[in-house]
Design brief:
Outer Surface Protein A, domain 3; 2 domains; alpha+beta; three-stranded antiparallel β-sheet; four-stranded antiparallel β-sheet
């Protein structure tokens, strides 16, 4: 049995969970997230805990067991605390600012890059070179951060570009004159 899948999920105070057909609805802080339960899996809510049981010991069921439990845990964590990803811009004259809900990037192109985040995701700039992507859905936050990084990924020669906070970019030497 999956070690991750068999651990129960504690439901913190202020969060409600309910099952309707094959959907698990989780509510908290005025927001609702749904998780579709795979066919054959059973989800039980007892004594403030959620447990996930798989239908058989087939390879596919074993693979989905831990994944399903982790996705449910992520929805609860997202509603309770939220998720965030931090990005940092490196390069002379490169900057970011938020105008309304749109992120405006000045990253060395002949034009500015405008990025509008998806629903339930907010983008903030604490300084001209720091971007914070926040939201309750871990997948949407990660996808939004990846899209922003995708406009100008860090290049290996001078290190310019948009990178995740703490990301290490190996520097290449470049041309050498003999």
């Amino acid at each position: 049995m999956s070690r991750v899948g068999r651990r129960p999920i504690d439901i913190p105070e202020g969060i409600k969970a309910g099952i309707e057909e094959n959907r698990l609805k989780i509510e908290g802080k005025g927001k609702t997230l749904e998780h579709i339960i795979p066919d054959g899996f059973t989800v039980e809510i007892k004594d403030g805990r959620i447990t996930v049981r798989r239908p058989s010991d087939s390879r596919a069921a074993r693979a989905l067991h831990g994944t399903t439990r982790s996705l449910i845990q992520n929805t609860i964590t997202g509603l309770k605390d939220g998720f965030q990803k931090k990005l940092r811009i490196q390069g002379v004259g490169y900057k970011a600012q938020v105008k309304g809900k749109t992120l405006v990037l000045d990253i060395g192109f002949s034009h500015t890059v405008n990025y509008t985040p998806p629903e339930d995701v907010t983008v903030e700039t604490s300084s001209a070179t720091e971007i914070v992507v926040k939201g309750i859905d871990k997948q949407k936050v990660g996808e939004a951060a990846a899209e922003i990084r995708g406009y100008y990924p860090p290049e290996p020669y001078k290190g310019k570009g948009i990178r995740y906070e703490g990301e290490y970019v190996r520097q290449k030497q470049g041309k050498s004159i003999a």
